[in-house]
Structure formats: C-alpha cells, structure tokens
What we know:
The chain is an alpha/beta fold. The protein is built from 7 helices and 10 strands. It has helices spanning 48-55, 78-85, 104-114, 120-130, 146-158, 176-192, 204-208, and strands at residues 4-17, 20-33, 37-41, 63-68, 71-72, 89-92, 164-168, 196-200, 212-217, 220-224.
Amino acid sequence: MSRPVLQADKLTKTVTSGERKLAILNQLSLSVAAGESVAILGKSGAGKSTLLGLLAGLDTPSDGELILFGQPLSRLDEDGRAALRAGRVGFVFQNFQLLPTLSALENVLLPLELSPRAGEDHTAQAWLAKVGLGERVDHLPKQLSGGEQQRVAIARAFVTDPKLVFADEPTGNLDPDTGAQIIDLLFTLNREAGTTLILVTHDHALARRCDRCLQLAQGQLLPLDPNTVGGGQ
Ligand SMILES: Nc1ncnc2c1ncn2[C@@H]1O[C@H](COP(=O)(O)OP(=O)(O)OP(=O)(O)O)[C@@H](O)[C@H]1O
Ligand SMILES: [Mg+2]
C-alpha cells in the first residue's frame, strides 16, 4: 500500500451550542492511501461536512492530529495550512460557495490565481466544458441552476490538478443522467491522474464505485461493505 496522503489520529470536534457541549466527532481515526477513493455515508447531522472540513485542513479539531501529505497540521498556522493545500487539495462544498459577483469562468479561475501557472483561462474553460458548461462561462451563479452551480464548483475543485479532492455530496443536486456523467468524470480522474477522492454522499451508485465505504455515526467511522450499500439499488 502506498504512503497515506492523509492520516487522522483521534480527531475530536466539540462545539458549544447555547449551554450545551455537543461532541460531533469523537476520537475518530482514518488513513487514506494515495489514489484511493473513499465514500463517507451517514444520517443528516451525523457530522459528515464537519469531518470533511477537518480532513481538508479547513477547520481545526478540538483534539487529535491530522497529517496531510506527511505534514502534521497542528504545527502549521492558517497561512501554513493554506500553503499546504494550494494546488494540491480541491474541495467541492455542499453549498458550492461560489462567489456571487464572479462569473462561472472567474470562479473556476480563482484557485489558479492562488497558485499561478500558464494557460489559466484555457484550463478553466476546458474544465467548464468537461462538466458540460462550456456555453455558460460568462454566467453569474444566480443565473445558473443549482445543478449547474454544483458543476462549476466541481470544475473549480479540479482545475489545479489536485492530488486530493474532497467533495460533499457532489451529485446531490444533479439529475440522474448528469449525476452519472459527473461520477464517471470523478472516477476517470481517480484512475488516470491518480487523484485521491474522499466523498460524502447519500448516492448509493456513487458509494458503490468507491474502493471503500465508511459510515459516520456517534462521532466514529465504521466500515461498510460497498457491495451491500443501498441493497443493490
Ligand atoms: N459551529 C457549530 N456550532 C454548533 N453546532 C454545529 C456547528 N457545526 C455543526 N454543528 C452541528 O453538528 C452536527 C453535524 O453537522 P454537519 O453539517 O457536519 O452534518 P452532516 O452529516 O454534514 O449533515 P447533512 O447530511 O445534513 O449535510 C449538526 O447537528 C450541526 O447542527
Ligand atoms: Mg453535510
């Protein structure tokens, strides 16, 4: 097995809500090898989005350690974590988080501007074409449907050719045909570019195509047999 790209060791996340302390994640450990595809399933509110944010280094745990690309994140400040992620980590947010005043093309260009390289416009245009939005480059997010915004978010996550992609319900707003196309695209990249995928999904077809399925419940991850996910739906 190749060297892990990500190792989470006893991650705990506790938040305070009013007077109450809520433990979202409880000493959760996970190791993901380069090139692996992992699906994370679980009920609404189980903490999947919280976990994804922590694994990507976008959020900090209350306790425990995350090692990303061999670097313990606890030793890095926010700028150091951003530098570690730049160009290497792509993230598709559950609510897309597109910038409302920027066009589809400008949104996809954003990560490239943070790690400049040649041919930026061309690369961003090519990604929008790959997700089926080649004709919509000048549209603002509000001029796009939910599924179209989701595809812009996917293009933005992949535009830097990252080694590791996190996607929070990447097919959640897509019709079955478009969803199937996006799933094919994700796994082609996984296979051809060796991109490691960590996906949160309720989509059993997507989960079954992953190397590994995990269920988040009571702040812990438990293995699920991908072949039995969704009972063959
Ligand atoms: N900053 C916060 N303060 C208080 N509670 C929070 C905070 N962040 C998350 N939570 C709570 O933690 C729980 C887990 O939230 P999270 O968004 O991670 O769930 P999820 O599994 O992604 O759910 P869904 O499937 O609906 O997207 C929820 O009950 C949520 O209300
Ligand atoms: Mg969520």
